[in-house]
Amino acid sequence: MDRKNNRIFATAVLLAASAWLSVADAGACLGAGPARRCAPDAAPVSAAKAPAPTAASAPGADVRVAPIHTTPDGQSYGRWAAQWWQWVLGVPATSNPLADTDGSHCAERQVGDVWFLAGALAGAGSVVRTCTVPARKALFFPLINNFMGAFLSDPPEQRTDAFMRAAAACKDPVTIEAWIDDKAINKPTGYFTGAKGSPSPLFNVQLPPGNLFGLDETVVPELVFSPSAEEGYYLFVQELAAGNHRIRWLATGCTEGNVQDITYYLKVQ
C-alpha cells in the first residue's frame, strides 16, 4: 500500500466518525477489505426504541446544553471538538471508548472538568453503554462527525488549511435526534463545528502504540497526525445532578454510510 493511500485509510475516520476507519467524534471501521475489523454489535437493551420526543427549546437555549457560539468551560465548541479527537485517538485500541460495547472503558484518559463520551465504530449497530461519571463534570460528545489527519511526510500541498478542511468536511446531509433523560434536544444540527457554527482549529494528534488504526512509525512518522482537521455535530452538556441519567442519540450522514445509534446510562456520583 503506498503512503498516500495508507494516509487516506488511516484518517477517513469518523467516530464519532467516518466511512473508512474506525474512529467522530465523532466511528468507522479499522481496516478495509479482508483486513476490515468492525466492533461487534452491542446487545440491545430497551434503548433500541427511541424515546418519544418532548417539547424542547431552541438550539442552545436548553438549560443543560451550552449554546453553540459560547465558550463553555473556557473553550469554544470547535476547540472542544479538536480536544475530543486528541483524546479518543490517543487511547490504544484495546481500551478505546469508540470500540467499547458496554461502557467498560468510559473512564479512559478522562481529565479535567469535562468528561468525554464517544460514538461507535462503523458497523457497530446499536450500542448501549453504562458508565459512572464523577459529580460536577460537564459532558462533551459527538453526535456524528468526520476527521482527517496528515502525515508529517505528506507533500506540502496536502497539509494546507484548505486541503485538510475540505477532506474533513461533512459532505452528506445529516439527520440527528438526541435526548437527555427522554427530553428531546431541539435542532441538534445547530451544534455544528463547521464554518456556519463554531469552527475547530487545525490540531495535532499523537497516536499511541497499538492505536485504533493499527499503524506504527514505519507508516506514520513519529505516530503524529499533523495537521489534523475535523467537522461534525457535538453537544456540550452542563453538569448533571447526582443520580441516574440516560443520554441517547441517533444520527446519519456527514459521510457516506455513517450511522450512530448510541445510548448511555450514566450514574453521576
Notes on the protein architecture:
- There is one protein chain.
- With 269 residues, the protein is an alpha+beta fold.
- It has one domain.
- Helices cover 11% and strands 28% of the residues.
- It has three helices and nine strands, in the order ααβββαββββββ.
- A hairpin with a 2-residue loop joins β4 and β5.
- Number of E-type strands: 9
Major β-sheet, in short? 5 strands, mixed
Instruction: Count the domains.
Output: 1
Low-confidence residue ranges: 1-62
Shape: globular
The overall pLDDT average reads 82
**Helical content band:** 10-25%
Strand line-up across the major sheet: 2-9-8-4-5
Q: What class would the helix/strand composition place it in?
A: alpha+beta
What order do the helices and strands come in, and which of them pair?
Elements: H1 3-11, H2 77-89, E1 114-116, E2 127-133, E3 138-151, H3 161-168, E4 172-180, E5 183-184, E6 203-206, E7 224-237, E8 243-254, E9 259-268
Parallel strand pairs: 1-3, 2-9
Antiparallel strand pairs: 3-7, 4-5, 4-8, 6-7, 8-9
